[in-house]
Structure formats: structure tokens, C-alpha cells
Amino acid sequence: AFLLDVRLQASDFLHHPEFTWWSKQGPVAAIDKLIVEFCAWRNLRPLKLVLIGPPASGKTFYAAKIAESYRLVHITVGPVVQEALARGKKVKAMVDPEAQESDAEPVDVESLDDRDRQEDFRGGP
User: Fold this and answer.
1) Are 64 and 74 in contact (CB under 8 A)?
2) Basic and acidic residues: which segments have biased composition (predicted)?
3) Contact residues for 89 (Cβ-Cβ < 8 A; gap 6+)
4) What is the rounded CA–CA span in Å between residue 12 and residue 114?
5) Cβ proximity of 107 and 113 under 8 Å
6) For the chain, how big is the Rg over CA atoms in Å?
7) Burial of 67 (0-12, 13-18, 19+ CB in 10 A)
8) From CA 69, how far away is CA 63, in angstroms rounded?
């Protein structure tokens, strides 16, 4: 029988103060950094796919199947639009009370247009 007792030690270079570790905790602890670096070096970008077609042509069905197969995020237009409208209503609810409390007078746009047409007015284009 052949036995071999090997004692491995890190090289002196690794103990040098100027040596910087990429991840002292290992690749699992730095997986997010590893993924970003991997994608950057290989010029990989997220896949974005848009399906366009007439109503009831199966866009949503096929989009769900593609997203499931390739592990992509599936976003449908309906919920996105509803969320944007809800945000708009929240902003309007916040702005309306402030606008009603304001003492500012409304601007008469027609009088501004008339003033803009006068010859002695030297406004910008």
C-alpha cells in the first residue's frame, strides 16, 4: 500500500497585505456579485420579449408558456395600467387639497396669446 501525507499551505503571496480577496467568505456568500461579474464579462443582458397581436389571438397564453419555459418574468399590460391609474389617483388626492387652499388666480390663456401677437412684445420664440 502506498500512503502519502500532504500538508497544504497557502502561499506567502496570499498573506501579503496588498493582496485583495475577491470574496473571503467564498462564492456562495458573494453570489450576487458573481452573477453581475459573470454577465458583464460575457456581455449578457436580460431577455426582453414583447408579444403583439389582435385580441384573443393567444398572446397571454403563449407569453405565460414562454415565461415558464425560460424562467422569465411575465408582465401583462392590464395590471400595470391599473397600478399606474391607482398611483395617479393617489397623487391627485394629495395635490387637490393643496390646490384648493392656494390663493393663486387662474391664468387666462387667451390673453397671453393676444399679448404674444402684439408687435411691441419681444418674447422668445
Assistant:
1) yes
2) 112-125
3) none
4) 83
5) no
6) 32
7) middle
8) 10
Question: Distance between the two ends of the chain, CA-based, in angstroms?
Answer: 96
Map out the domains of the chain as residue ranges.
10-45, 48-95
**Which H or E element spans position 95?**
helix 77-101
pLDDT tens track for 6-54: 887 777 777 777 877 777 788 888 899 889 999 999 999 888 889 999 9
Residue 59 CB partners (closer than 8 Å, separation 6+): 51, 52, 53
**Do 33 and 43 meet the contact criterion of CB atoms below 8 Å apart?**
no
**Contact residues for 29 (Cβ-Cβ < 8 A; gap 6+):** 23
How would you write 42-81 as a 3-class SS string? CCCCCCCCCCCCCCCCCHHHHHHHHHHHHCCCCCCHHHHH
Output phi, psi for 8, to 5 deg.
Answer: -95, 135
